[in-house]
Fold each of these.
Amino acid sequence: MQATASIWLDEPYTPRPPLEGRLSSEICIVGAGIAGLSAAWRMLELGVRPVVLDALTVAGGATGRNGGFFMAGVAPRYDEACRLWGPEVAARRYRATLDSQLDLLAFAGEVCARD
């Protein structure tokens, strides 16, 4: 099997330089994958300017290879979640993941429309 580049890296990419010196921020998010960037996006919506740090490439880990955890539902299967938390809580948590997916897809569409 031949290795392929992730969709995030299918065009030339110039890495950002490493952080030098000191930096002050209310929020520091470590990891620039889908979870870290989603958290940063939410912080911006709340009026907080976060700093996002990553040791390597933005979306270069699991996010860039397999979508990270862009899936519906929580760790336990839905039937197990119903047993653990009850059907109402399980359904609410499942719906929250679907809403988050829609938010991310809308954001991705906005970004693509700008390019």
Note: The chain has two domains: 1-70, 72-115.
Amino acid sequence: MSQTAIVSKRVFICGSALRGQPDNSNLGDAKFIREAKTRPIYRLHSAENGWHPAIYEVATGGVSIPGEVYELTVGDFEQLAAGEPPHMYPSDVILDDGEVLTAFLYPRELVEKYEWEDISDRGGWAAYKAGSQ
């Protein structure tokens, strides 16, 4: 019985690698699948004075984070993960339609320690960046 190797991975992107954002090229040859948003169980902060987003899951008071779904080769995913800012880590997120994908989250305790701006109500990372120019 042969095993089929996993050759691609679907990822939820909700920060600086979105279409039209400066790090979109970090996705390599990823295939854009669709726009999407999470279930309203996350918070979004502007980490390092707007350098990158910081997303984490909450039990209460969450919002739906807009983003995009991409299909990446395993190699492109590994390259993307290697280029993420310190402390960001891949984890499951739940989209509003129930699909579970990988996204890059940030430890809530660090967000709170540095008191980074909560931008959860700003319409997502791209809208926040467009409004902060």
Note: The first strand starts at residue 8 and ends at 13.
